[in-house]
Structure formats: C-alpha cells, structure tokens
Write the structure tokens for this entry.
Amino acid sequence: MAKKVTIDGNTAAAHIAYAFSDVAAIYPITPSSPMAESCDDWAAAGRKNLFGQTVRIAEMQSEAGAAGAVHGSLAAGAFTSTFTASQGLLLMIPNMYKIAGELIPAVFHVSARALAAHALSIFGDHSDINACRQTGFALLASNSVQEVMDMALVAHLATLESRVPFLHFFDGFRTSHEVQKIDEIDYEDIKPLVNWEKIKEFRERGMNPEHPDQRGTAQNADVYFQGREAGNKYYNAVPGIVEEMMKKVSKLTGRDYKPFNYVGAPDADRIIIAMGSGCEAIEETVNYLNKKGQKVGLIKVHLYRPFAPEYLLKVLPKSAKKIAVLDRTKEPGSLGEPLYEDICTLFMEKKETPIIVGGRYGLGSKEFTPSMVKAIYDNLA
C-alpha cells in the first residue's frame, strides 16, 4: 500500500531502480550521484529487491566503465541499472548502441544536465539526453518528483515487455533535488504488475558456457543493413506497450498517464508542447489564463522516443490552430531543435499546416517563469 514520503526526485528513481536490479554499476556525476548513493546505502543495509535479493553495487572508474559493466552484466542475465548525467551519459553512448542493438532490456536513469560547451554547467537541461536519440534507447520523460517514481516504474515494466532499453530522464536539480511529499509505491504492489515470464526469458537468454551461442559478430555489406532493419518490429510495438504499462500504473496510483498528456481548455486555440519540469510552470499558467477567459492548453510529452504521432493526435484539441514547441536544448546549425522538428514533420506528413513556432528555454536551468509562459501564449495570439 502506498505511503506518503518526503523525498527528492533522485531518491524516487532509485527506489524503483533498486526493486528491479540484480546489479547496479555506478560512477558518480552531479546531479545523478544521490541515486547511486541511495542504492549503495540500501544494499549495505540489506534491503531486498523484488527478487528477494540484495542488489550488488559495483563502482567503476568512469561512466564508460560503468556502461561496459552494465552491458556485460545484462548479457550474463542479471538485471542491471545505472545512473548518470551530462558528459557521463555521453561516455555511455557506445555501449548504449550495443545494448539497444542486442535488444537487452535495461533502464538508465538520467538527471538531465547541460553539457560543457563554451563553459561547464552542472545545471539541468536536455542537451545530454538529446545526444542519445539515435542510440536505439526509448526515451521517457518525468516532469515532477511524483512522476519520477511513477515513470520509473513504467520504464522498467515496459523494457521487460518490449526488450527495448529505456532512458528515463528528469531535469537535473530542478526535479532531481526538489523535495516533495509524494506517494511511495510499495514493492508488494509492484509484484502483480511484473511479467514474471519475461523475467524468466531474460535470464534464460543470459550467456552461459553450458549452452554457448554466437554474439557480437562483425557483419559485411551483404547482411548488416537487413540486421538493423530487423529490429523495427520491436520499436513499432513500444508505444503500445508503454500505453499498456501506463494504464497499469495509473490504475495502481490513481494518477492518469499517457504517452502524451493534455491539460487545458478542451477547445483551446493555442497550445504549447513541452517536456520536463517546465511543464509544471506551464500548467499553472494555463489554469490561470483559462480562468481569465483565454483558451490555451499544454501537451506534456512523456514518451519522447520512439516518437508516436498517433498518441499525440489523440489528445490534441481539434480547435488548436497555433502551436509553440519548446525545447530545453540547443542544436547549433539545425533548422530547429529536435522536438520542434518532430512536430513539424508530424503535421507535414498529415498535410496539415497549423502555425508552429519553435523556441528554446531554460538552458543550464535558466529561470522559466509563468510570465515567460504567458508571453509565449501572447506571441501566438
């Protein structure tokens, strides 16, 4: 049964990750370090995971080492998690391609942080996770401390079912270190949601000298292309699986989750599409403006990759004629930032042309206030 706890986003993510992990391969980097520290503390105290075991913690000498340890541990049939951010996540990218290419279920929990460009910043934005879009990891966003716990559970359930690895992210400091009173999900309540047959299948796929098989080959031009395309069916299934797991978690918690959640006027003429902690400020502003007689709304992105247009269109008000897409990242030289380009492509392929404007906000945790949100809606008017 759920109980009220006062914790931050990192602890919320760690609570769920610990439940689903045999092993956690870790290396500290701000602002993700408390996730690994919590798991280390719990393991030292003998806390048991869903499998009735104490999680084995392995601290490596870099994030690249942690990612390699995750890959090896997973290949051996042990459920393994890690926690990272920023440049640490970039060091994991080579192994992320392998884990995704081999269709190994796993979850990386990331407190999304700015990357060192002209200067270093330890604060939050989505620069790091956007560098991982091509790895083959599914990307799942949480917007608040409560959502971190709930979406972490969705990620672990969905990766088991789909075999596609997940990167579950939330804003560094703004969510990772925000302390809130939330509902903690009890491990006993999680057990009925788990597909134990999938756990058995994963363990049986683990490398074992008693039944050797060939993996990690080098392929030439005659077959490599076909091998890459053969994974498409797994990715096509992910949005439906995520929706199913969100329904299970929603039923358990009483909180409504979809790949895209809409809040605002049902007949809104102007909407914002965004993800991350900024959605909290936008939602507060939407509620205020609608009480004043305006018709505005917000689409909160949870499932960022694989991008599923049909789920966004399900919640998009038919009345929406003007859309602002907000990205918390900068992609120098591009026509627009990634989420903006996704939305433009969606409507282009539908042969529909609402007014769509893109914007950057909050790099390095730059303040993002209700007055700024109002200015966005005013600009759309």
In short: The first strand starts at residue 3 and ends at 8.
